[in-house]
């Protein structure tokens, strides 16, 4: 375990407030920023704690970046730290999407956003690629020294590209494979588990909408709790689930409005899942935005703080450490595969390809270049070209 420097809860909250305000690139980039800033630069978080948090975030349903942030807040300051860090990370992007939702409702449509997204979308692909590369290099090392890890990485990356989804069973299988290879068979007397959350999942799944004085908000709450509790993977994994509910099942939004909601998520900082705030605003105004966002992040919060003590207590045992390593590598493989999936949908002509490549080169060559500056430049380029 590497030595980490002292930091206060206030310093950590301020960092995540800033990351939630300026952190572009979605879950892949955000988890990369956390590692770069908190593990490598500031040395507030140890490499082991980061890996444990990433593994737990990938194993549990909900938005990856938000869960990792909550776990890192828990590392030293427990429930209070997890709560304040989670709020600090989510609040800035929530306020931004609510403001955009207000403008959308009052001034009609987001025609300008198509032009902005043309440049920003390609830039985001470059940011994600750069972050995924750094994660891969740090976690896996040389192929000749870690053949099993690279095999797992390749399988998860290929599976994600082919299926365009992330399968929780593959993550678990990866953990078991590395456990058996590095710490064979030592039965886990006690191990991190999410079984304590099963009653919550059952209750949410079985609950039906009841007649109330504000039925629409109740519908929003139940739907978005399910979205947060049953969708695994990165932030973009929630998009198909949201589409089936808000467009097909409930008819809250039109196809065009839903596409605009996804665009909002991609061009705003913070977790991609915060698009639920925009959707909630369109459906039921500011109360709808609060209910949708709160309901989505509640399961994420609980799925992090409930198993966290077990990860902290037993995570450094050889068998559990091996399992966590396997899950972490699987997560990085899935993240790398997601880069290809997103690129296929975003990079569709020469200008967008050039923007993505220039972004990668800039981030690679200019180490201290702030990502928001690159995103802003890409937005201007998009407006000019589009």
Total beta strands = 0
Which residues form runs of ≥5 with pLDDT under 50?
186-213
Q: What is the N-to-C order of secondary-structure elements (H for helix, E for strand)?
A: HHHHHHHHHHHHHHHH
* Percent range of helical residues: over 70%
Give the radius of gyration: 20 Å
Structural class: mainly alpha
Euclidean distance between termini CA atoms: 50 Å
The biggest beta sheet is recorded as: none
Q: What global shape is seen?
A: globular
Mean pLDDT: 80
Continuous helix count = 16
Share of residues in strands: under 5%
List the helices and strands and how they pair.
Elements (H helix, E strand, L loop, with lengths): L8 H14 L3 H16 L5 H13 L4 H44 L3 H30 L6 H17 L4 H15 L15 H9 L8 H16 L7 H12 L5 H13 L7 H31 L2 H7 L3 H29 L3 H16 L5 H15 L1
Helix pairs in contact: 1-4, 2-4, 2-5, 3-4, 3-14, 4-12, 5-11, 5-14, 5-15, 5-16, 6-7, 6-14, 7-14, 9-10, 9-12, 11-12, 15-16
What does this structure look like?
By secondary structure, the chain is an all-alpha fold. 77% of the residues lie in helices and 0% in strands. It contains 16 helices and no strands. It has helices at residues 9-22, 26-41, 47-59, 64-107, 111-140, 147-163, 168-182, 198-206, 215-230, 238-249, 255-267, 275-305, 308-314, 318-346, 350-365, 371-385. Helix 3 (47-59) packs across helix 4 (64-107) and helix 11 packs across helix 12. The longest helix has 44 residues, at 64-107. The relative contact order is 0.19. Residues 186-213 have low confidence and may be disordered.
């Amino acid at each position: 375990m590497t030595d980490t420097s002292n930091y206060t809860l206030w310093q950590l909250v301020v960092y995540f407030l800033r990351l939630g305000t300026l952190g572009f690139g979605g879950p892949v980039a955000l988890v990369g920023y956390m590692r770069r800033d908190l593990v490598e630069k500031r040395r507030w978080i140890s490499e082991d704690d980061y890996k444990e948090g990433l593994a737990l975030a990938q194993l549990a349903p909900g938005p990856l970046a938000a869960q990792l942030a909550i776990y890192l807040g828990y590392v030293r300051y427990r429930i209070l730290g997890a709560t304040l860090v989670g709020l600090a990370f989510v609040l800035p992007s929530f306020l931004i999407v609510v403001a955009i939702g207000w403008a959308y409702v009052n001034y009609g449509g987001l025609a300008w956003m198509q032009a902005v997204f043309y440049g920003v979308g390609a830039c985001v692909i470059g940011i994600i690629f750069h972050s995924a590369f750094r994660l891969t290099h740090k976690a896996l090392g040389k192929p000749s020294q870690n053949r099993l890890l690279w095999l797992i990485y390749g399988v998860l990356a290929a599976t994600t590209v082919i299926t365009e989804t992330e399968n929780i069973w593959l993550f678990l299988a990866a953990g078991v494979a590395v456990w058996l290879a590095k710490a064979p068979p030592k039965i886990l007397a006690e191990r991190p588990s999410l079984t304590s959350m099963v009653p919550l999942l059952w209750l949410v799944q079985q609950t039906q909408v009841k007649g109330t004085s504000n039925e629409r908000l109740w519908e929003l709450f139940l739907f978005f709790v399910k979205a947060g509790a049953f969708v695994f993977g990165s932030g973009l994994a929630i998009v198909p689930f949201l589409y089936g509910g808000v467009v097909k099942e409930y008819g809250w939004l039109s196809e065009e409005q839903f596409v605009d909601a996804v665009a909002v998520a991609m061009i705003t900082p913070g977790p991609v899942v915060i698009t639920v705030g925009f959707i909630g605003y369109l459906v039921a105004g500011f109360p709808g935005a609060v209910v949708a966002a709160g309901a989505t992040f509640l399961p994420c919060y609980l799925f992090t703080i409930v198993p966290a003590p077990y990860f902290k207590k037993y995570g450094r045992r050889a068998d559990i450490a091996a399992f966590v390593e396997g899950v972490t590598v699987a997560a990085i493989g899935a993240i790398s595969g997601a880069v290809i999936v997103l690129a296929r949908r975003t990079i569709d002509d020469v200008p967008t390809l050039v923007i993505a490549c220039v972004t990668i080169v800039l981030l690679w060559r200019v180490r201290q270049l702030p990502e928001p500056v690159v995103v802003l430049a890409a937005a201007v380029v998009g407006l000019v070209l589009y």
